Amino acid sequence: MIWTYVEQLKNHVGQRVELRGWVWNIRSSGKIHFLQFRDGTGFVQIVVEKSTAGEDTFKKASKLRMESSIRVTGVVKKDERSPSGVEVLADSIEIVHIPQEPYPISKKDHGIDFLMEYRHLWLRSRRQFHILKIRDAVLFAIREFYKNRNFVLVDTPIFTGSIGENAGNLFELDYFDYGKVYLAQTGQLYLEAACMALGKVYNLGPTFRAEKSKTRRHLIEFWMNEAEVAYYEHEDNLKLQEDLVSYIVNYVLKNASEHLEALDRDIEKLQKVSPPFERITYTEAVKLLERKGHNIKWGEDFGADEETAIASEFEKPVFVTHYPRKAKAFYMQPDPDNEEVVLCADLLAPEGYGEIIGGSQRIHDHDILVKRLEEFNLPRESYRWYLELRRWGSVPHSGFGLGIERTIAWICGLNHIREAIPFARTLYRIYP
Ligand code: ATP
Ligand code: MG
Q: 357 is in which domain, residue-wise?
């Protein structure tokens, strides 16, 4: 007997196969049981009829309850009405485990707190299955994109001594005799070192921010893909980003569209995502916001409302470029035409999903960088190695960080980022 998976059943129509998985629901009517079955690759209906399965198997099926695990054999039948295109007519069942208590996640509407408390079980439900399959596709697409372009994967450290983004958002730990170290908020500074060795580099891993913001788009632990390229200037950087984001969206459309459909995602909106993306400057964005009645002064950073208002003017993601120097990180290259702004861009996703990428050209001049560290009150000693990159063979270079969960939330059309990661770490939740 061949053990196969639900996703393969279409290739086995008319054959007898074995499936191993779980019963997530049961409907029965006298002489027939309908088992809603899943095996981690998909969902299918298994029909257990007294007449074909026999008395014994039928009795076994009567004992099943939600989240029983079984090995089952049966014949695969075409079934146009089912989403999988097939159903299985069972002839034998081997019970692996029957729960002794009712499954906590029943069909009735549970509140989000309840579901998050049971996240370890909630993962088994259909909606979460589809989201996690899309997450898998997004991460694969990212790796493939860089592989196609001969970028080198460089894994950056999680424990860091120097500070990347914002000293207020750091998680601090004791590190033996060394004293305080921090969990990485970004691997950028290390990628800057690596790009001077390997040219085109990227990373993909978790980052940590002790942000007390309780919004729909902030996690405490989130995944980021960062890229850094030697000799890239501002415009090269934007091109790389619009290519990457378009590649991810198209990969998902091509390889995971059934999951988008299962989530009722408006696919037409995603089909519009292709290069080039529009670019507007920060200053233009401020004017746009003023026209729309927002109370924003030049120099202030944008919040979620402003980002949504800007993005709603565009069908595709849009770059907001040239932010005020003082609103952004110390390492960003000043615009040669106007030193008050920097050569940076935030990429805002459509439909209110906010910033999915932050990036910039980096300062490559040693003395300008030293001046910036002073302006930002950052300890020069912690940045010794970072400054040394500017002492030998310094070249213009640029890079960015893409938030994985924000990208997934946008592609899936989720209204909260917590469903975009298997086990979310938020302000009030570290369990399970
Ligand atoms: P925001 O202003 O929205 O908090 P940021 O400017 O702090 O974001 P960056 O430091 O530029 O973000 O980080 C790069 C990307 O990482 C962001 O564009 C976003 O997609 C993602 N990101 C940043 N902070 C978080 C977070 N707390 N949770 C999830 N994703 C995040
Ligand atoms: Mg932030």
A: 119-420
